[in-house]
Design goal:
Elements: E1 8-11, H1 18-28, E2 31-33, E3 38-46, H2 51-54, E4 57-62, E5 65-70, E6 76-81, H3 98-107, E7 113-128, E8 134-145, E9 157-162, H4 167-179, E10 184-185, H5 190-197, H6 219-236, H7 238-243, H8 247-266, H9 273-289, H10 291-301, H11 303-307, H12 319-340, H13 343-358, H14 374-394, H15 402-426, H16 429-461, H17 463-467, H18 472-504, H19 507-516
Antiparallel strand pairs: 1-9, 1-10, 2-7, 3-4, 3-7, 4-5, 5-6, 7-8, 8-9
Amino acid sequence: MSALAAGSDFLPPGGMTLEAVARALAGRFEVRDGRSARALDRTYYDTFDGLVHGAGLTLSHGAGTLTLSERDSGAERARLAMASPGERLLTGDLAVSPMRDQLREVVEVRALLPIARVRIRTRAFQVLDDERKTVVRMMLEQPELMNSRGDPALGTRVRVLPVRGYDEELALVRRTLEGELGFAPAPQPLVDEAVKASGGDPAGISSKIVVPLGAQERADLATIAVLRRLEAVIEANLEGTIADLDSEFLHDFRVSVRRTRAVQRELKALFPPEELRHFRSEFRWLQQVTGDSRDLDVYVLGFESMRALVPETMRDDLEPLLAVLRRRRGAARRKMVRAIRSKRTAALLSEWSSFLTELPDRPEEDRVDAGQPISAVAAGRIRKVYRQMVKMGRAIDKDSPPEDYHELRKKGKELRYLLELFGAPLYPGEVVKPMIKSLKALQDVLGLHQDREVQVATLRSLEHEVDAAQGGTGALMAMGVLVARLAEDELAARATFAERFAVFASKAQRKLVTDTFA
């Protein structure tokens, strides 16, 4: 759709009521006035991290219809008749439809949550030509927030909607609204206005860690800024993790905990040793108590991919395995939620926040790197961890035990976090980005190797439980085939390792690391 043929919203001059707007329009155009206003309740949905907004789309439900439209033009992309989704909508809950397909591309596994509820009083107009044909449609809208604790009123709007084949008339209406009647183009869609008025952020709450750093900034202050951002992500994802709104809350929570631990471990000379030992122990515990639940999330979410590894005639036989995984996931989640809600977790997060606040004023005798430039401290750690990885990787061959691959993978995560948190904001992108890319490629192989090894062990540990279920005999046979396929993938990952590692540890890459992080 062209910019001209797209719809658009206008704001009337200040203080104009819906009726006054109607009179102004009727005085300038030949219009058919719908007269009576009707009220429509509309709920807007997006993911916690604003994926719908980021894709330039708006998702709303009203009058028994779910509508996906373009944010800027209002052009409809898909609609689906359905009852109110309530407090959570997953794409898997939708009927097979273009709506489901388009939303899946945008949100993947994330849940769609209500971000604003509005009641809109509308009045319809049609602009007519000399033959009394409708050439432009207009909707006068007077929205207000529902369940608002403050002033519920939002700005009155005139929505100008195109009619196919009448682009010139549409342009005339727009010019008249702006040039003669004093209307102004709406600076933001209604959904953004409503979300902001509700106290939210239209772009959602991102779990990305982007903290600008100065090369000469004190290392402790720069690191505190990074840790504060990680702390904010942990806190932001707590409630969604407990409520099980979608699997990404727990994932983002754990990634931020893991990054926090990596900073504690790799930049230990910025912290008082005794207190650092305490916090490292407590964050390790927090990582551990959330691990089983995340692992089982991954198994359940990826079950269709695992099912596809066995012959089609055996795929339905794996249903007892899925039931066992879901049951175990439920038990693991209950245990995890108790831990997250515990006084221990509350104390950890509170004490950690206070510790970060007080850290700059602490004596530096036992924080020897605190006053150094962050660029020097980060460069030293990046260079050292990279060299450790090269040494570890060179010692791995096709007969190495799985533990060697696993240890290299863990070291790779340390390097990746250092590069993302400190390398990216401090050093040239043409160096850091290719380095992260080659590291990710290596990590993918190491991750596949580790995942397949763990999956094989997990499946074998579940055999007794699956065998006791109805249909267990067939499930065990299918699981045997699945284990064999997973073991093949593990061997394939070993075969691919040397190629990926050669790129990561090439002579040119080693020189670049030495020159950049000198």
